[in-house]
Write a structure and sequence with these properties.
Elements lengths: L3 E6 L5 H14 L4 H21 L2 E11 L2 E11 L5 H10 L18 E6 L5 E8 L10 E6 L1
Parallel strand pairs: 4-6
Antiparallel strand pairs: 1-2, 2-3, 3-5, 4-5
Helix pairs in contact: 1-2
Length: about 150
């Protein structure tokens, strides 16, 4: 049975419960301690981003299977995120250059896959996946940025 969790993020008080749910799911799925820490750190970064830079946010956690791999998918939905689009693209690889410039948090070293989809309306979707380790690589295998 595939497990799915939906977490609304409207204030900073929603960040800790999001971290705890992701941590519990990762442990139940059999991720090792190091991987659980990476998943929890990614949730923290993306949840803080959603609370600080969107009207409303939500995170979807789910177990995924693809090409014989088993892992966790984290989808973060930011409604009308207030982003500088150049900063968003730049932040994928190195984080924001300026403190005052909102950008998608640097998640490169935490997850195996990362996709950022930004719509013309300002909504942003961040999809991250961490696969159960056959290797303990910390660098992502794929990163793409798409605009709609």
């Amino acid at each position: 049975m595939i497990t799915r969790h939906r977490i609304d993020l409207n204030s900073t008080s929603d960040i800790l419960p999001a971290r705890l749910q992701a941590r519990e799911l990762a442990i139940r799925m059999g991720f090792g301690g190091f991987e659980v820490s990476l998943i929890t750190a990614a949730i923290s970064k993306v949840a803080r981003f959603l609370v600080q830079h969107s009207r409303r946010g939500e995170i979807l956690l789910e177990e995924v299977q693809q090409n014989g791999k088993f892992g966790i998918s984290i989808t973060a939905l930011a409604e009308a995120a207030r982003l500088d689009r150049k900063a968003e693209v730049q932040s994928i690889s190195c984080g924001s250059n300026r403190e005052s410039e909102p950008s998608v948090p640097n998640l490169r070293g935490l997850m195996d896959e990362l996709d950022v989809l930004a719509s013309a309306s300002g909504d942003t979707t961040i999809v991250m996946k961490r696969w159960k380790s056959s290797c303990v690589a910390v660098h992502p295998r794929s990163i793409s940025v798409e605009r709609g």
